[in-house]
Amino acid sequence: MTLAKSGRPVSEVTLDALRAGDVDIEDVRIHPQTLEIQAQIAEEHGNPQLAANFRRAAELALLPDSLVMGIYEALRPRRSTREDFEAVAADLEARGAVLNAALVREAAGIYLERGLLR
Fold first, then answer.
1. Which CATH architecture has domain 64-118?
2. pTM for this entry
3. CA-CA distance, 92 to 71, in Å (whole number)?
4. What is the pLDDT of residues 92-101, one digit of tens each?
């Protein structure tokens, strides 16, 4: 069964439910389990890169929007130092987002090589 982020079955998120005022914002956000299912399908069809993206998205789906936007800003060229990247990665790890933490650390190395750190 596919779930909304709220835990509600997606099949219950209908236009009738919306009109009746029975749909909350969390009902229209994706659930990490749904992203994992998509990752498995991507792997089955020979697309490991897409599967990895879905798994990172599943981790991010559990985080507050403001934190995700802060990470996005930190990853923009010349916005962060190597230490800033490490702080972001450590925070992600502490929140259980280990795949994203690894990606941030990888990005820090690439930014260093390309002269994109602050």
1. Orthogonal Bundle (1.10)
2. 0.82
3. 10
4. 999 999 999 9
